[in-house]
Amino acid sequence: MVFRDHFSGHASAYALFRPDYPDDLFDYLAQLAPSRRRAWDAATGNGQAAVALARVFERVVATDASLQQISNAREHPRVAYAVAAAEDPGLADASADLVTVAQSLHWFERERFWSEGRRVLVRGGVLAFWAYGLFHMTPEVEAVVGRLYTDIVGEYWPPERGEIERGYAHIPFPLSEESPPAFHMQKDWTLPDLLGYLRTWSATRRYAAARGEDPVALVEADLAKAWGGPPSATRRARWPIQLRVGRNPGPLPR
Question: What is the value of pTM for the model shown?
Answer without folding.
Answer: 0.86
